[in-house]
Amino acid sequence: MTLIFHSSLLKDISSMLNNSDDFNVIIQVGENNNTKEFRAHSIILRARCPYFKSALSSEWIIRKNDMIMFSKPNINPTVFEMVLKYIYMGELDLTKYQVENILDLLVASDELLLEELFNHVQNYLIEEQTTWLQNNFHHVHHKIFKLSGCEKLRDHCLESICMSPQQIFTSNNYQLLDEDILYGLIKRDDLNVKEIDIFDFLIKWGIEQIPSLGSDKHRWSNSNYETLKETLNQLIPHIRFVEISAADYFVKVRPYKAIIPNDIYNEVKEYFIKGTLPKSITLTPRIKQSFIESKIIRKKLISIISNWIDNKESKEIRKKNDTIYKFELIYRGSKDGINNNSFKNKCNSQEQILVLIKCQNTKKILGGYTTVGFYHNVRRRLGINHKNITSLNNFIFSFEDNNDTENMKLSRVITCNYAIYNNGFGDYGFNFGNDALSMKDQILWLKNKNGFYKDNVSKNSNYYYIIEDIEAFKVVKE
Hints:
Layout: H1 6-19, E1 25-31, E2 34-40, H2 42-48, H3 50-55, E3 62-64, E4 67-72, H4 77-89, H5 99-111, H6 115-128, H7 130-135, H8 137-144, H9 151-163, H10 166-169, H11 179-186, H12 195-208, H13 222-231, H14 246-253, H15 262-274, E5 291-292, H16 302-309, E6 325-332, H17 333-336, H18 340-346, E7 353-359, E8 365-370, E9 380-381, E10 384-385, E11 388-389, E12 395-399, E13 409-412, E14 420-421, E15 430-432, E16 437-440, E17 443-445, E18 464-477
Parallel strand pairs: 1-4, 5-6
Antiparallel strand pairs: 1-2, 3-4, 6-18, 7-8, 7-18, 8-12, 9-10, 11-14, 12-13, 15-16, 16-17, 17-18
């Protein structure tokens, strides 16, 4: 029989970080007035970190009094302490650190080839620090947008900016925006900015990249225009010129004819004069996206839910004239309390409501949408409560995680008279279809025992979860 003693092994190894005196590596980190020396063991560093496995095996390492001396001035002491906790202890509580240091940890873990730590930190920033990332976008993009492994975080940041781009397009630091980031933004179909404002921004940004140019275009020479054209060469073709009004085109775009490629300019000119649609410009109109401020669900999944509200397929591309929804937060369990009474007090209306639920010990996101709200006035007739609310368009759903655009499950109501169980006198916070999806204080039930909804939204045998957080939004057409 094999005996397993992992816990005591980890405890003994982790104690070496602070208590052992047989270290053979001294690592100096930081620079200027923020430096610190850490003592470590080469055998552990080499076993746990691919970077140190290579670096400490090199014949170029410096030794002093039989001690390996190592320097990492580009990693600050707080971040390197986090790295050592991960290496020695195999655990790290990111909630105890400032987000600035966690971002630096992402950069450090990439440099030190700590893939497991890198992936965990990236997911933490996406799932728990979206607001901070949005508010510090300029700082974030200088830190991480060149890292090859950060595609997931980059996409998340760009997606967030597209939903609320004012912080970029009205920023006083707009000139610092990297061209690659700007390119990543303007080529997206979901950038929620008027096309003429994007054009104006590119002109302003381009001028700032050429200090000798000046803002008075009346003094520009042909070579000045050519320089600006080269600066904006990869950006201008991604402007949807046909989405600009004729007035704005003639007043704001035409004066910059010299910086627009001839084939594009001629087709756009013909479009505004004759109404002839361009042949070589195939860019589709940008699609204004629905907006939600949620701590549970990523914004990219809200377009899927919006399609479901419109009775469309999950992945159907939303069109320019499709209904746009604004999701107004009316209840958040982590703030208002996760219990029946809190939910009922906040959501007692006959409006369209979307509910999102995050549960413990699972990455699943569950939810439901009702066109009729939850709590109609319960009338009594001969002592019998009118408990059920009718709706033709209610549905419940689940996503496997916050990046799931393939395996989500949708279940629409099929017995419309039982769309919502109206528990004005009952024991539920909400109840879709008599336990198809229901909240009973901190327990979420997914039984669908009566089949009032088409399918179960749980793929396994779990028919209940412990609610970690829950949000409810009033759904408003814009």
